[in-house]
Specification:
By secondary structure, the chain is an alpha+beta fold. The chain is built from ten helices and ten strands. The chain folds into two domains: 108 residues, no CATH class; 192 residues, Muramoyl-pentapeptide Carboxypeptidase, domain 2 (2-Layer Sandwich), CATH 3.30.1380. The strands form four sheets. Strands 6-7-9-8 form a four-stranded antiparallel sheet, with no helix packed on it. A hairpin with a 6-residue loop joins β1 and β2.
Length: 362
Amino acid sequence: MKALRRLLWGLGLLLLAVGGFWLWVYWPSGQTSPKPESFGDQGAYLPPQHVPSIDPPGGPPRLVGAPERCDGTDAPENAAAVNAASLSTLAWSPFGKPETGWEIYAPRIAAEIGTTCGPGSNGFASALARWQGAHGMPKTGVVDPAVFGAMLTRWHLARPFVRVNREGTCPGAPPEANLAVAKPEESYGGKAIRLRPGALEAYRRMAGEARAAGVLAKPDALRIFSGFRAPEADAQRCARDQNCQGLIRTICSAHRTGLAMDVVIDAAPGFGPDSSADANRLAMTRAPLYRWMIVNAGRFGFVNYAYEPWHWEWTGEPLLPGVPIASLPQEGSEPVTEPPKGLQEGSSAGRPAAVSGARNRR
């Protein structure tokens, strides 16, 4: 009996020792565990400086199982007929000067609303009505100045250069020693084209895909005719030509950033690749290359200035710190009440109005 009693005492003491050790290890010490960082803590999150381009959109939504129907019956009544008529007759001034019709902007509008249907079709009107509804506008399905104005604001604000300009700042220019030089076969007319290296590499990737897509039908298609322009040289030209009121040029050009380029799209007979005559811009926007770029250039980080089919800006790197626009040389930007003799809007000295490169606003 004594042996059994001693055994039980021994087991009891062993259990007490084990229990005490467990409590010593696992009992809370009174200190709170560090709180894991919350992904919802906006103060701890620094967003990246580069926001991927949303302009142009990546293309109309892919349709599964069947091609897009453009003859549907769900379009607002008479919308297709109104669009078909106004396509070539609408009298308006979307960029401050009178224009007739909106066919120049039809490919851009179609990409914005996500349709491949023609501008006079029921499918186009239906897609536009859906876009209008999604943006708090009456679902008329009709292209008019108010609808275009809403789209134009979106397109402008997709350009980092414009967003900075709206704050009264002109972005800085990169050191010229840091610029990359385009190959002779990438430039137009034997020009020496310089860009920031990332922009030039993105251009080359885009040109390769455009070539593979078969939209570079002409030998000069997509060649660059203007890249980086030194601010000092632009200021001298403004002072000399007195045309930097925002119509032909501006005292703060996107080309100073090394991220903007003008490329050959196409040209109407008798016009150059940079003529902003309506007939020339229409020829460009009818070109397969332009329509391909409207849908695909955004994948490579490029955004377009809607008035100029040839002007594209790369958004893959942040703009450099700049200076107040008001601090730039102002000579040549003074308002004018009457164009110089022999120089009307839409013309340059020594050239007829029809072949000008006016309204560059960039």
